[in-house]
Specification:
alpha/beta; about 35% helix; 10 helices; 8-stranded parallel beta barrel; about 350 residues
């Protein structure tokens, strides 16, 4: 494990007992938490993106704020639903955030998971013949990649009073190297292989649309292996990055035990988006037990980056304590070193 960070779902709303977390609270706490993690040497802060829901929906302002207040930590998404995106506007925003951060954006995109509304992307002005919108997502993604690669996409107006070189103009700003920090979220081996052929990194999904009775980590490790094989077959230089996400809670206090002591410790099988799927289990135990359990997780061993899903509604102090316990007592046994020591 070379890197680890957090994956926040960014929920806000009523918390019970008359308490309420506002959208402003959620974003400001995310910035504060990222600053604390940067001080610890944690490698990344990623955010789930959902529309028409009380969650993060417009991640770029949040990522820019984190970029401006941190020094080392990566910040990114896991994932942006490309069905909803204007590819050229996303290219402009992504390059801007990457430049502000000094090249620390790790942008995860995909078709996205089911939303809380029916075909919500149509309200954003996009239509698809595919009921799941997969063709739309990939069409948008292809144009997005062309834009961040610096391809000229619009012809300069020869009569423009603003000058500039003649010919096809690229999207501005342009951030050199951003293309190498794009990730695709995949829930199947076929999609992972497609991402490899495209030459982007792999975010293995929090669920796999496969359910053949084998453990989730074995299915996920096979997906990662298939991705690397397809990457090599495509002739891309270097080695692509791969990530997995897990719910992992080191239990070091009575409060931890109260919240997570009875968490599900087995994989789940269910249906999502009409497909039978496998969901990963939750790891919640003392640090020494966690080390033994995680060492047996085939997908964590196969990936270079681990994202910890965090209960963001519990606030900065609680989450930072969970993250610090993992960084101090568990992660080093899996091969991790803080970014500030590198």
């Amino acid at each position: 494990m070379q890197s680890f960070g957090t994956l926040s779902f960014g929920h806000y709303g009523p918390l019970g007992g008359g308490r309420r977390l506002t959208a402003a609270d959620s974003m400001i706490q995310a910035i504060d938490l990222a600053q604390g993690m940067d001080d610890l040497g944690v490698n990344g802060a990623w955010f789930r993106v959902h529309h028409f829901a009380r969650q993060h929906a417009a991640p770029m302002p949040l990522l820019a704020a984190i970029a401006a207040k941190t020094e080392r930590i990566e910040m990114g998404t896991a994932v942006i639903d490309m069905r909803y995106e204007n590819p050229l506007y996303l290219a402009e925003e992504s390059a801007a955030v990457d430049l502000i951060s000094g090249g620390r954006l790790a942008l995860g995109v995909s078709r996205g998971s089911p939303e809380t509304v029916v075909r919500g992307y149509e309200e954003f002005g996009y239509t698809s013949a595919d009921p799941r919108g997969a063709d739309l997502a990939r069409e948008h993604f292809d144009l997005f990649l062309r834009a961040i690669e610096g391809e000229g996409l619009a012809e300069r107006d020869a009569h423009s009073p603003f000058g500039g070189a003649a010919g096809m103009q690229r999207i501005e700003p342009h951030s050199e190297g951003l293309r190498s920090r794009i990730w695709w979220g995949a829930s199947t081996r076929e999609t992972a292989e497609w991402a490899a052929r495209k030459g982007v990194n792999l975010m293995s999904s929090t669920l796999l649309t496969e359910a053949d009775g084998r453990p989730f980590d074995i299915l996920q490790a096979e997906q990662i292996d298939a991705f690397h094989a397809a990457w090599r077959a495509a002739g891309h230089p270097g080695t692509a990055r791969t990530s997995v996400s897990r719910s992992i809670f080191p239990i070091t206090t009575a409060e931890d035990e109260l919240y997570f002591g009875r968490s599900n410790e087995s994989d789940g099988i269910g249906y999502i988006d009409g497909l039978r799927s496998t969901f990963g289990k939750t790891y919640a135990a003392s640090p020494d037990v966690l080390i033994e359990q995680l060492a047996q997780d085939a997908a964590i061993a196969a990936a270079d980056t681990l994202m910890l899903t965090i209960p963001s509604q519990l606030g900065v102090a609680f989450n930072l304590r969970i993250i610090e316990a993992f960084a101090a007592h568990v992660a080093p046994a899996l091969g991790w070193e803080p970014s500030r020591q590198r």
